[in-house]
Protein: GTP cyclohydrolase 1 type 2 homolog
Amino acid sequence: MSPTTLAAIIAELEHAYDPAWAEPWDAVGLVCGDPARPVRRILFAVDPVASVGDEAVAWGADLIVAHHPLYLRGTTTVSAATPKGALVHRLIKHDIALYTAHTNADVADPGVSDALARAVGLTGALRPLQPSADDPRRGLGRVGDLPAPMTLREFAGQAVRGLPRTAWGLRVAGDPGRTVRTVAVSGGAGDSLLGLDSVRAADVFLTADLRHHPAAEFLQATEPGGGPALIDAAHWATEWPWLPQAADLLASAMAAKGINVETRVSRTVTDAWTTTAQCED
Structure:
């Protein structure tokens, strides 16, 4: 069976993650690669960085599908003297294409937050925290119910076991003994969603990159017990569960057309934080 082309793979990716859904400031789509080239092996990763490039070369990948853009703010150079330029040069040298699905994957159905919700134990129906104006099934974040109530302490333990391990772990704000049933999640940085009624109605909100002032002001405004507990996870860890979901979706779509592609989910930890330290008495 002859291999499929990069153009055909991109068509399937953009059916699932329409670039039109991306935020205006975002940079999604094909970064480098020839649409006419054959694609047999596809590596899914959160970050397009050197270590992921190494993994792609070692495995013999033809394409990297990354969640985060390589050049989010644009550039005037792809000089190999820069880290990002060096990655572009290496990928081109080894005939490896790079494609990005970012905020368009965040709001997709299913998308990044659906995968996060499943990873931390939500099994039933999910709803967007902030539905898209043109399709209420899509949108930022997800909210749903746990199969059975549990304490915040128990849920935090369940969540940390369901997410890939990072030095960051989980930071929890709230009474460890409070009962939680309704859980709101948002993959990636989510403190912009703290003001949503759908977040305030939950028992716990799990996201990443919660800043001190927005989190503190939110907790003060909802005390005592009038709003959700907060769980802050590593940014990379909240988005990693999307990778196997996206890989399975693409492989299944291609198989339905009689085309077999080999997918692989990168387990290279590209979280920026590598260790923690505690002050000793």
Observations:
- The radius of gyration is 20 Å.
- The domain at 107-233 is CATH 3.40.1390.30 (Udp-n-acetylmuramoylalanyl-d-glutamate--2,6- Diaminopimelate Ligase; Chain: A, domain 1).
- The chain has two domains: 4-104+240-265, 107-233.
